[in-house]
Amino acid sequence: MKTPREILNQRHQAAVPKLDAIRRECVGQASRLSPLKKEKESEPFTMPFIRLVWRELIFPSRFIWGGLAAVWILILAANISMSSRSQFKMAGSSSGPAIIQAVRQQEQLLTELIGPNVPAVAEPRKPYTPRPSSRRALEILIT
Q1: pTM greater than 0.85
Q2: Distance in angstroms (rounded) separating the CA atoms of residues 103 and 109
Q3: Number of domains comprising the chain
Q4: Which residues are CB-neighbours of 37 under 8 A, at least 6 positions away?
Q5: Which of the four pLDDT bands, split at 50, 70 and 90, describes residue 78?
Q6: Are residues 50 and 24 in the same domain?
């Protein structure tokens, strides 16, 4: 007795060569039109790595990377705007001897206000002599 599978295979045995021809034609067209094959042949060795990094690291979090880039641009702009204001030209505004004279006048004024810088004489240190703790308690009670 034949199985249903064997019966179906006998009925459709004539269609196998036609299906094989159609399969070969479709695969041939797909291989000729495949953009991946053309890109792989023409791209340099580093391109697949760069494409992989872009696809795996940058593209999924592109809004975060864009935000970070915007913040860095703002920081750079603020840094440039602040540095241009804080720069000044000392050479044209005052000369070296004038600055030295101004510093000496400030030192003289400070000396007049505070007094001369004389260190105060400190009392000599008393030597430490440890005593028994029972005597300390007695001193506390007596005084």
Answers
A1: no
A2: 10
A3: 2
A4: 31
A5: very high
A6: no
